[in-house]
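HUMAN: Forgive my ignorance: could you write out one protein's sequence and backbone structure tokens?

ASSISTANT:
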Amino acid sequence: MNSSRPHADTYLSTMTQTPSSSTRFAGLDGLRAVAVILVVVYHLFPALPLPGGFVGVDVFFVISGFLITSLLLRPSHRGPGRLIDFWRRRARRLLPALVVVITVCATAAWLLGGDLLVGMGRQVLGAATFSYNWLAVADGTDYFTATAPELFRNFWSLAVEEQFYVVWPLLLPLVLLIPGRWSRVALLMVAAGGSAWWMAQLVSAGEVTRAYFGTDAHAFGLLLGIALALATAGMPDREWMRRRRMQVCALLVGIVGIGAIVVASTIPESPDLVTFPGTLLLATTGSVLAVFAGIWPGSWFGRGMDAAPLRWVGDRSYGIYLWHWPVLVLVLSGARGYGPEGGVPWVEGILALVLSLVAATLSYRFVEQPLRRYGFRRSLGALGRRITGRPLARFAGLAALTVALIAVAGTSAAIVQAPHATSASAAIHRGEQAVQEAASASPSESPSPSASPSASPSASPSASASASPEASDDQIVIPEGVDITAVGDSVMLASAPSLMQKFPGISVDAEVSRSIWAGPDILSALAGNGQLRENVVVALGTNGPVDTGVLNQMLQIIGPERHLILVNAVAPRDWIPGVNADLEAFADSHRRVWIADWSGAIAPHQDLLAGDGIHPAAAGGDVFAESVWSAFEGIEKERLRAEKRYEHAPSGRAHHVPFPA
């Protein structure tokens, strides 16, 4: 009876007789180019029709799983010494460019300052140790709703791959003990299915970022790449495989694979099972088909994917991927004052692309290739010889050393001087504290809402009445806080201290990430508990488009005796103009609805917003409260004008005051 170990050795020895043992696989460089192009377009040009371009990362995962496993299966890579050599080569390939990107971009962030530096220590540690994904999860980072730019956020995928490079070479010998090629392939397929299932479970539980970042939940691309490598290892190169009919079939398989990747990249992301793992699995399956078509003996598809432009991009895909996101964050922060979460204008996107390509090309030529070819010791020795050599060489060597020292010093300064929280987070935290303090106040300290909502705002006396030139001798009376219910999102939450100061006793119900769809349920609950006051202020336009049907629901809930004040929105988001236009149109068509023009009030004072260009700082909160005050002034002015029209109307023609309706 034969043991499984000789069987595995025989299996490995067949590698030397196949095309798979060559130093290069056809089509993989072109597929890398496709992957990095999708990711770069997704980040730098979000207006283009590739809303799912992030699936390029999963294409990389399949390529890595296949390529590294194929490399490890070669007899020349067996044994402890070869394993150490494998890790050394991986370090040569990955670390030089990584160190350059981290130090240069962190130094640039230090020069720009502000919210860019928040979490810099964690980011640098995660990027340098290939643990970015898990550190981000532990820190509570939300990949999909982050309101502040993370300079090295794209490094999470490099962490997943590097963790694979460390663990998989240790596990592969155990897998090879299993007799039978297809038994091994089946094992990896089951593992890939388990990883996808685990992602689905996490997403169903609302842990989308954990599902996307987690090596365990996002390993199915790597595992399917491994399964393909095990399935095709020792694949013979027969004459019949190179026949025209087989080449046409392989070409069609490759086209279908690329088509699946492209289709996946056109599907908009959503924080549910449709995308995670649905769309990702579509792209992963397409990648497996494309790799298989490329490595088919004499593949036409492989030759096509090896076209010179694609190979050029593919050779530099690692550097392009490393540079493009930090460069984009730096360009936007320097030019616009906010990060990619606020949208990417075409000019900044093109500038970031050019800078990324230049940086990646220089890094490939002067950092990655020399260190990959000569290693760390010989490269350092060459630098030392330059410094002690001829004047021109000495100048070049000293200049390179000086730049490196400056970059390291700038990175250290960025870590040391990093603030604990973004300016937006600090503003929101102040609002949360104010709301909590108001809620914990004793009943004797906190005013209660008016018992009857039937009175008009002018029926309540106010110590803070103000005169209006339009009202002549008449007095405009602004409702007190005890007559106001405010419901909103994080913008209102950040403005809560100012609202409470401007309207003492106001009831503020605001939370982060609320949209207009939350409004009816909140108002219904308040009305059912008898806590809905005479005047209702709603600020829910920041986090997405508004819906007229939802606005009508809210208007019906508050009833005919109350006023509804809708606060328009300010944010570097593409839906904001539509939100403000829809709110204005709704107010124009409903007599009991008014607009608080927060957008117009803050427009001349953008410096009073936090670094994200959305949330008001302390002084910005005062502007928010003033815009609400101005809306109440408008209501009172309209009431006074209506009363005057009533007083001067001919007898018998004016039977009622047309305001409020």
